[in-house]
Each structure stands twice: as C-alpha cells, then as structure tokens.
Amino acid sequence: MNDMSLTREQREARLEGMGCKRKRVEDIRFTQGKGSYVDDVKLPGMLHGDFVRSPHAHARVKAINTDKALQVPGVLAVITAETLKTVNLAWMPTLAGDVQMVLADGKVLFQNQEVAFVVATDRYAADDGVNAVEVEYEALPVLVDPFHAMDADAPVLREDIRDKKDGAHGPRKHYNHIFEWTVGDRELTDAAFRKADVTIKEMISYHRTHPSPLETCQCVCSFDKIKGELTIYGTFQAPHVIRTVVSLIAKLPEQKIHVIAPDIGGGFGNKVGAYPGYICAAVASIVTGKPVKWVEDRIENLTATSFARDYHMTTEIAATKEGKVTGLRVHVLADHGAFDACADPSKWPAGFFNIVTGSYDFPAAHLAVDGVYTNKAPGGVAYRCSFRVTEAAYCIERAMDILAQKLGMDPAELRLRNFIQPHQFPYQSALGWEYDSGDYATAMRKAMETVQYAELRKEQAAKREAFRRGETREIMGVGVSFFTEIVGAGPSKNCDILGIAMFDSCEIRLHPTGAGIARMGTKSQGQGHETTWAQIIATEIGIPADNIMVEEGNTDTAPYGLGTYGSRSTPVAGAAIAMAARKIKAKAQMIAAYKLEVHEDDLEWDVDGFRVKGLPEKFLGMKDICWIAYNSPPPGLEPGLEAVSYYDPPNMTYPFGAYICVMDIDVDTGVYKVRRFYALDDCGTRINPMIIEGQVHGGLTEAFAIAMGQEIRYDDGGNVTTGSFMDFFLPTAVEAPHWETDYTVTPSPHHPIGAKGVGESPNVGGVPAFSNAVNDAFSFLGSTHIQMPHDFWRNWKAAKELGAV
Amino acid sequence: MIPGPFTYHRPTSVADAIKLLGELGDEARPLAGGHSLIPMMKLRLATPDHLVDLHGIGELRGMRRDGDTVVIGAMTTQYDLLASDTIAAALPILHETALLIADPQVRYCGTLGGNVANGDPGNDMPALMMTLGAVYRLRGPGGEREVAAADFYQGAYFTALEPGEILTAVAVPAQPAGHGYAYEKLKRKIGDYATAAAAVVLTMRGGTVATCSIGLTNLSETPLLAEEAAGAVIGTSLDDAALKKAAEAARAIMQPAGDGRGPVEYRKHVGGIMVERALRRAAAKAA
Asked: What is the fold, at CATH topology level, of the domain defined by B7-52?
C-alpha cells in the first residue's frame, strides 16, 4: 500500500527506521514489572539447589560429611565432586583452554569456591541443608599477590597441572604460570628506545573489579528422562554457545538440548561464561528427574562468578623531544585467579589487548603478557568492554598523560600531535590490527571547544596558585581521554570460541499482511535489541519497525549465533540483519517487477516500496508485496518472503571517542566532585540516538564506579573484603555525575550499514578520563601516577604523601 | 542470604510483647524496622528461633511534646521524624540527621528505637541522642526504668538493655530557640554507614560559645560524647585555634577500625574534620 496522501518524510517517519529516537519497545513490560526472568520460571515439581562454599582461600578438603544435611526436612540430595566423577563432570573446560573444578576435588583454591551442591524441595530447605554439611579442611599457604606467583617458593596452586610444561597457549615458565603471549617487533622497539630523546616507564595497575549485574547468574534445568532431552532456562549472554558446550561436555546430542534465555537483567560480561551452578543444576535434574533451579545470591555473584580486569601493566613510551611517539613497550602481569576462565575468543589469551597502541601512530611496539594463577576467584571477563580493551585503553591513555607531564606539554596537544591521520586509514597498527576508519583530530577538537578546554587550564593554573598561597584546600583536575576500541568479534580468520567461528545471524520472516518476525543469534540483556533491530529492518525493507517482532534467546527457534558481549551485536548481527533484509528486498523487487510489468532494472527503491523509474504513479509498496509473495507470486517463483543470513565480518570495527572530565578534590578529606563530564562518541552510523545516549550514560556510570572506588579486594589471607554492595561501590543516581553526550559520525567502510557498536565505549573511555582527572589534579604537587581506585581515603593518602595535608 | 527457620509473633501491646519475650527467652528477638536484624539473619549471623514483631503495637509509635521534653515512641520511623512539625520546631538536628540515613525506602521502615537500641556503632542516632542528653525508657519483666543515652552503650551491640527488656520511647530535651546545630557525616555513598560523623549542638552568647555538646558516630565501638572537645570551644569565638583544639581533643578519644572506608589514621583525621565543620556550621546557625 502506498498512501499517496503522505509526504515522503511522513512515510519515512512512519517506519521509525535508523536514526529515529524510537522509544524502547521492551520498556512497556519492564517499567510495569512484567518482564519474565529466569527466577520467574516455575516448573511443576521444581527443586532448588544451593552451594556449600569454602571459607578458605586455599585448603585441602579432608572430608565432606553429608549425613546431617540429608536429615534436614526437604533435602533430597547432596552432590559432591565424587558424585560428579561418576558422570565425568567433576571438572569442566573453560573458554580459555584451561579446566576448572565444578566442585572442590581434593582442595579448594579460592574463598567461596563451590564445594557441594544441596538439592531440596524449596530454597529455604536447601540453605538449611548447606548449613548442615560438614567439611573438614586443612589450610594451605595462600597466594594473593600476583607479583609473587612465580617465586621459587610460591605455593603450588594447581596440582592437576603442576608438571605440565605446556598450557593452552604455549610453554609455561612456572607451576603457577598460565601463558606468555607476545606481539610486535621486539628489536625494532628496542631500537626506538635506544634512539629516544625522552622515555617514560610506569607500572599502571587496573585493579580487580566485577560486572555486578542487578540480576545475578541463575538457571533452571529440566531433564526429561523419557525423551532424553535437557531444557535449560538461564541468564545466558550466548545461549547457542551454552548449548554446544553442554552437548560436548555432557555428551548429549545437540538437538536434544534446548537453551532458553528469557529477559536478562544486565550482563556486562558476567553471563558469558559457564559456571558450576549450571552443571550442578543439570546433573541434579538428571539425578532426581525433576527440574532444578539455581539462583546465585549477591555475595556469591561478587565473590565467585567472573571478576574483571586485574591487569598490572608496566608501560614504557619512547618519544622525541618534540613529543612524537616512536615506541611502546608493555609488559602485563595478568592475575587470572585459580583457573583461567577468561571469556576471550579462544586463540586470544589476553583478548585484544594489542589494541594498546590506542589512537596513536606508533612506528614500533612490543607487548608481552604473562598470565598467572592466584588464590582468587577465576574469570577475567570483558566487563562492558571488548576483550581486555578497557585495560589497554587505560594503559595507553594514562601513559600518554605521564609522557605529556614529562615533556611539559599539554596532554590534549600531545594526543593531537600523535593521532593516526584520516588519510592513513585503513591503518595497520604496529601490533597487528587494521583500523577501519577514524577522524580523531576532529573529535578531539570538538570536545576541547565544547568544554572550553583552554579556559579550564587557565582556571586550573589560577587555582594551583591559590592552593600554594593557602587560600583554598581544593585542587582541580582536567582528565583527557581519547580512546579507540576494537569490537565486533569477529572475523572467523581471527576469532573462535572453542572452535566455533564468531559469525552471527538473522532470520526474517515476513507475514502476508506486511508484518514479520525476526530472530537473531544475539541476546539482549538491556541493550534494547527488540527496538533497534527492528529499526534496521524498517529502513532496509520499508516495513514499519512496529510491525516487526524481534525474538532472541531460544536456541530452538533462533538461528545459531555467538551472542551479545564485546560490543559485537551491531557489528556482526546488525550486519546479518541488513544482509537478510537485502535478500528479502531482492525477491520483493522481482515480485514488483512482475506486477508492474517492467524489468527489475527499471525499478527504484522509494522508502517503503518500488517505483518505476520516470513513472512516479507506478508504485508497489512492501505491504502489498508481502501479500502477493504468499498468494500470487510470479510464475516459477516459490511463495513466501523470508531470508536467513549468516555474517562473517571481514574486519573488526573501531569506534572511538574523546572524553573530558573536570574534577575538584578536597585534599583534607579526599572527597571529589565531578564538576563536568563530556563524552563525544563516534560509533559510525547511529541506529537509535536515544538508545546510544542511554548506553553512554550507563557505561559512564560504570566507568565512574570503577575509577573512583569499585573493586574486588582481598586481604592477605585471601578473604574477599568487598562481598556486598555495602563495600563494593555501585553508584546510585545521587553519586553519579551529570553526563553531557555528543558525537561525530565516521561510518565503518566494511559494515553494510556503517555501524560500529557503542555499548562499551563509555566504560572503555570513561575510566581513563576519571583517573587522568585525579592524576592531573595531583600532578603539580609532584606525582606522576596514582593507582586506581581513587576513593576518598586514597585521595587523602595521595595528598598526604605529596605533603599537601 | 536465606535465613534459618523461625516462628513469627505479632503482639498488640507492650505488655504482651514483654510477656512473650520473657516466655521465649534467649531464642527470641524483638523486630522493629529490621534493617540490622534481618540482614544478620540472612547471613545466619543471627539465628533467632522467634521473632517478636513490634509493628502491631500502636502505643509505640508517634511523638508528643511533654513540657520541655519531646517523647518519641520507639517504633516511630525515620520518615515519621522527617514529616513531623514537632521535630522540625524543637529538634531540627533530628530532621537533618534522619535525612542522612540511607534512602527513602529504608527511612519508611527504619525506626528510631531500632536505630538506638541495637548498639550498632554505625547507626547515626545514638551519638545524636547522647549529644542531645536524651533518656531511653525501657520496660521489662521488672517494670519500667530510664537510662540516659550517655550511659546506655557498653560495646558494639552491647547495651544496658536487660534480657526481656524493650526500649519503648526516647525522651529528648527540646532545644532552646536560637540554638545552633549540625550533623556532619562523611560517607562513601547513599546507604553507607559513616566513615566519620559528628553531631554538634551549641548556644552562642555575645559571639562566643556558651554551651556545647559534641557526639561522634562510627569512630569507636560505641557512639562517643566528646566532652573535652566541647569544653575546648566554650568561651571561644570558634577561631581556628579553638577548632583545631576541639578536633584534636575529639581525635584523642576515637578508636575506629580500619575497613573499606579507610585506615584508622584516615578515619580519625576526617573525624576531626567533621567536628570542625559541624562546629562551624552550628555556630553559623545559632542566633
């Protein structure tokens, strides 16, 4: 149908396609409390599981006595490693090529490690049972500090691989060593340092933290003995991967496994990996023949399921005295905890950390990463960032500030002097990536003009003088961050998870009345895919977004995909959506040509249908084409209008941005105030500006949390001291600063719609902006680098050590 | 985070509550707003067999002016305090402090009685009650008695409450017109206990401090009355030297624990700063 009474603009507006600030369709249910989460799943006869966890960070398990627990009313079973051994599931493979205990097998390696799984008729009885299990431990020496992991007399953590000379990523140097990963040209880099006028060297730590989604990790497993089928409802960011992994480790045929991820209350990387809870609930269901639910509590989530970061980055830059960088050398000590359960593409033990050259034209660079075991929780997930990209961005952005300080140069000016120039794209970095597109200087200058950067520096100079004269106790910092991300994993030539190539997919079925359903291999956890995916389809094939239902998360109906994390959904599935839509459009064009009695080449696309070139009244709209496709297709053309596309991206995408933070710090208390935070993002083509703004707000709030206080901290005995939201900093609206957002648009040249992904940029770029602001505030007192997190007492400590208190 | 089994009781009079607590003995705990007890039960740090919920007892809730005293029922919530004109007029510092306790959802449930009776050094109201010279009314199997807030706290979670006794009301002297007051609380975020906090109530005469009382929150196992610090400013115009002296005198009695809020040295340092800032702000408010 083509309503000729509407203008072209009105027809475009009716589609609510790309570029439209379309309201989030999922919010209709979320804002009314009508979302459907895993914990809302209640199956007949469902049982509940709960873990006995280790109070020790490192101990031998001498005995587990389950007698009293089995006498607790309602307790049906207690599963231990010995039970799991009968089905060969006491250990499970990790995504990083390591193996991990499902339940403590002979010893425990971190506090709150899973020791036994109690299954009961309700959640209360399960917990009563947990408290009745008696475990006898023999404490062992605890290894907390990664810098001592490879000492000659360090405790042996992983007895299972003590004598193994090679790990999943090559030779091991020590029994607590996991891998060494090197990239770049060492000789060229060494030569650059020999010739340098100026060099800097600093150990920059990015502390351990946690993604802490509001909904914790959970599942319901239901095994049907008659059919031999296992149905798993779970908080999965990558449901298909879970299905394949379960099939491989449980030796069940893949078609008999049904994985369903319903609404998810935030993931941020926490829900990518496989956890002991999933395995135990599945085994418990197989053993009891009843559905079994496992729901993590907050303490368990913070202390046992995947942490993030814990990278200790010794960073060196070589430069000329004019401030042109000539070399970068980075060594990372990566603390992986007790098992290497990093959620990276399998061939990348340190993720894409080799994006560490950032936005700058480094002629030479060398990177080495050593992964080590400690008595801490396993993990190393990408907490709202592409794999280890936020660590890399923090590393280079902090180091550039340190170099600027040494050169006596403004940090923004130093960045402008070293940016990769627009004409250099596609740009080959010294550490092996091909950057797709960018216009960095334009973005940086726009940011500087908007915040009146030069004025801020003048104000800062005046405040520093006033501080020296004793007229104020407040110091001011201006934090500059210019980040380049690498997202969209990924091309099958680089990326796989346990051998599964990291493509993504979309299937679109249009219905006869001009509506349709679209399914993808991704899984929204709050990103708003139901809204934005329909917008891509609306623009591509002229069906209003409101008429397209988007469905994700059911592995029986959705095409195979690798899920949502690492800002990969838009770069990979977004491309698949456009490609599937274009297949439909090609068939629609054949139908239109037949009905309008012209050759296909004589048709042109016009918003929501095809028009005969030069004959504006001869038009056939998509709605009509849908009806015709089913009921009177051209002779020889099969009925129907649907398409599937699997997209293997030719390259990653490289979003970038310029962030500036203005902060004031009271040296007497260490209390800071973020006066202003400006974030300019360039994510290429913008699908929904309102959703982008929401993504940026959320990511910046997480970045603020991480930089200013959020951490997973252990004491010397390996006890977690930040196991609840009392001590783990999760800012509320009161603490969160006001955000100013802005953008430039530099489309990706290789992506079908030019989009690059944005969800994680603000976390990646935000952390260095905050940390640089704090460091900038203190720099005039003589400091070069103060480690994160910059909470009140640490700011005061810095001030005190610098003689300001 | 799942509590153990318990039996729930909901008496409708103080007498019934006391009778129940007497019968049930050590395994029973009275329940007010629940913001300390229920988290402890979820962590199984507290495993009472019986909970005696005081919400059904109307006589425990509400405020009234009784001459120079304001009597506040133990089950009066922080929200009730914020909504009360009586409090706003006679005890504005209570209003200021209640607003610094957690968030609105907590303040709808959290009670004054629970806040002061639990003996948690992190709670804000105990130090304030000591500063204001409040008296706690307790009732138990042996009848009714009064204990000054200043004599009530014996250690972390240890108070003058005898087994079977409950705190029924808090009697607070109404403050004179023209008094100055301030509660300065440094916290990491909404919902957190104080890293350090100081309550100040004072009166000024002719530009100098006539009377002064200072309380300290979360800087020791119990709330503290900083008498020497208060004495140090009386007769002064709160010049820098007097403020520093008061801060140092206050720091001398602080014995905070090092925790996620900061090491001991930091908490004492900012404790002194809270005292200075509260004194300055209170003086600015005084007529």
From this structure: 3.30.43
Percent of chain B residues past pLDDT 90, beyond the cut: 99
Q: Which of A128, A131, A297 has its CB closest to that of B1? A: A297
Domains of chain A and CATH, by start? 8-35+504-647 (3.30.365.10), 38-140+216-264+271-303 (3.90.1170.50), 389-487+652-801 (3.30.365.10)
Average pLDDT, chain A: 97
**A240 with A561: CB under 8 angstroms?**
yes
Q: Out of B44, B190, B266, whose CB is closest to A793?
A: B266
Q: Which residue of B has its CA nearest to A708?
A: B188
Q: Residue A588: how many CB atoms within 10 A of its CB?
A: 26
pLDDT digit string, tens, across residues A283-309: 999 999 999 999 999 999 999 999 999
Give the nearest chain B residue to A669 (CA atoms): B270
Q: pLDDT tens across B21-39, in order? A: 999 999 999 999 999 999 9
Give residue limits of the domains in chain B.
7-52, 60-173, 180-285
CA of B48 to nearest chain A CA: how many angstroms apart? 14
| DSSP letter for each residue of A144-199 | --GGGTT-TTPPP--GGGTT-SEETTEE-SSTTEEEEEEEE-HHHHHHHHHH-SEE
How many beta-carbon pairs under 8 angstroms link A with B?
Answer: 61
Contact present, B75 and B60 (Cβ < 8 Å): yes
Q: Residue A1 — very low, low, confident or very high, per pLDDT cuts 50/70/90? A: very low
- The neighbour count for residue A715, using CB atoms within 10 Å, is 12
Looking at domain B60-173, its CATH architecture is 2-Layer Sandwich (3.30)
In this predicted structure, what is the pLDDT of residue A5? 83
What CATH number is given for B180-285 in this structure? 3.30.390.50
C-beta of residue A12 within 8 angstroms of C-beta of residue A609: no
Average pLDDT value for residue range B144-166:
97
How far is the C-alpha of A610 from the C-alpha of A619, rounded, in Å?
6
In chain A, what residues touch B1 (CB-CB under 8 Å)?
Answer: 297-299
What letter would DSSP give residue A571?
Answer: I
Cα-Cα end-to-end distance for chain B: 50
Listed residue (A665, A663, A674, A661) closest to A798, CA to CA: A665
A486-527: pLDDT as tens digits: 999 989 998 999 899 999 999 999 999 999 999 999 999 999
DSSP annotation of B77: B
Please give, rounded to a whole number of angstroms, the shortest distance from the CA of B234 to a CA of chain A: 25
Find chain B residues with C-beta within 8 A of A734's C-beta. 189-190
Closest CA to A713 of A726, A700, A699: A726
- Distance separating alpha carbons of residues A119 and A78, to the nearest angstrom: 6
- Residues A15 and A476: their CA atoms lie apart, in Å, by 48
pLDDT of B49-103, one tens digit each? 999 999 999 999 999 999 999 999 999 999 999 999 999 999 999 999 999 999 9
- Nearest by CB: A732 against B190, B259, B262: B190
Question: CB-based burial of residue A163 (10 Å sphere; 0-12 exposed, 13-18 middle, 19+ buried)?
Answer: exposed
Distance of residue A710 Cα from the nearest chain B Cα, in angstroms: 11
Provide ipTM, 2 decimals: 0.96
Q: Which residues of B touch A673 (CB under 8 A)?
A: none
- pTM of the predicted protein model: 0.97
C-alpha to C-alpha distance for A559 and A582, rounded to whole angstroms = 17
Binding-site residues on chain A for chain B (CB distance < 8 A): 50, 123-124, 126-128, 131, 297-299, 668-671, 709, 713, 721-722, 725-727, 729, 731-732, 734-735, 791-793, 796-797, 805
Q: Which among B186, B188, B266 has the least Cβ separation from residue A729?
A: B188
Could you give the residue numbers annotated as active site of A?
237, 384-385, 760
